[in-house]
Amino acid sequence: MSRVHKKNPTRAFDKYELYSKSVQSTETDVVFLRKVYKELRKKEPKIMREDFCGTFALSCDWVKLNSRFQAYGVDLDPEPIAYGKNHYLPKLSADQQRRLHLQEGNVLESGLPPADIAVAMNFSYFIFKQREVMKKYYANVYKSLKKDGIFI
Questions:
Q1: What residues contact 9, with CB distance under 8 A and at least 6 apart?
Q2: Segment 76-88 mean pLDDT
Q3: Cut 0.85: pTM above it
Q4: Do 55 and 84 contact (CB within 8 A), yes or no?
Q5: Would the CA dihedral through 6, 8, 9, 14 be positive or negative?
Q6: CA separation (Å) from 52 to 9, 88, 91, 116, 137?
């Protein structure tokens, strides 16, 4: 996870911090997700599920957005989840932490938490190289959506 930083040898290279700074814009993403849902469904979304959540930064910003919002993060890899638990979770209030649910698991398996909005961001679904596997994921997402749910 960490290597020596080339310009500053005393500072560790943090791939998750660099990923967040270069690829993600979670604070604006959650506002966009909420807006899209409200425009399409004419009501407020409450539950967002972040598939391939990694460090679950998006989920953290979702629960910050509204005191009634809940987020579920699902990812196979324990390393980025542990990073998020160490770096993002402590920045949330106790109430926000209670509304954030993490699941180390496979998005292809049944039983995904139901959601108003299910998201697969940053092209994580490109890991599915066979059409049938991708189709299985889409079918699983569809089954997990609440009535009027959307997948982004």
A1: none
A2: 96
A3: yes
A4: yes
A5: negative
A6: 32, 16, 21, 17, 12
